[in-house]
Write a structure and sequence with these properties.
With 142 residues, the protein is an alpha/beta fold. Helices cover 41% and strands 17% of the residues. The chain has a single domain, classed as 3-Layer(aba) Sandwich (Rossmann fold). The chain has 6 helices and 5 strands, in the order H-E-H-E-H-E-H-E-H-E-H. A 5-stranded parallel beta sheet has the order 2-1-3-4-5, with helices on both faces.
Length: 142
């Protein structure tokens, strides 16, 4: 007879009780800023996927939709505005919350987003915005 010795962690995984880590897609062309965001988010308990331009972001979203997108607006190849429009235009992705981070003069009202940060930001501000945006589950301003 085969005996399996399962610990508490294995039992939780087996019965689906273990919370899955949420995946955040960071879309930022500044490599240093992307690395800072990745480190802060990882330390806060999130899985992080990165994209350095809008085209790569759209490919990654299409391949494996994340739980939330952190989106810079000024990006090479495809702008952050186009990425935002593509996410919100499709039924499969329109539920994905978006945290827009920008240094430009555009406002949250103009973008019609609920989660908006103006650069420069601290890691704590980023984590707070991500948690709040995930909690509300909204990607558009009410």
């Amino acid at each position: 007879m085969l005996r399996l010795r399962l610990g508490w962690h294995e039992l939780k995984v087996y019965f689906g009780m273990l919370d899955r880590r949420q995946t955040i897609l960071v879309v930022e062309d500044d490599e240093d800023l992307r690395r800072l965001f990745r480190t802060a988010l990882t330390l806060a308990g999130f899985d992080v996927v990165e994209a350095g331009d809008g085209m790569d972001a759209l490919r990654r979203i299409d391949h494996s939709p994340p739980d939330l997108v952190i989106l810079d607006l000024v990006l090479p190849r495809v702008s952050g505005l186009v990425v935002q429009q593509e996410i919100t235009a499709h039924a499969v992705t329109r539920h994905i919350p978006i945290v827009v981070i920008t240094g430009s003069a555009i406002s949250a009202e103009e973008l019609q987003v609920a989660c908006f940060l103006r650069k420069p930001i601290s890691p704590d501000q980023l984590i707070d915005a991500v948690r709040n945006c995930l909690a509300t589950g909204s990607n558009t301003a009410e």
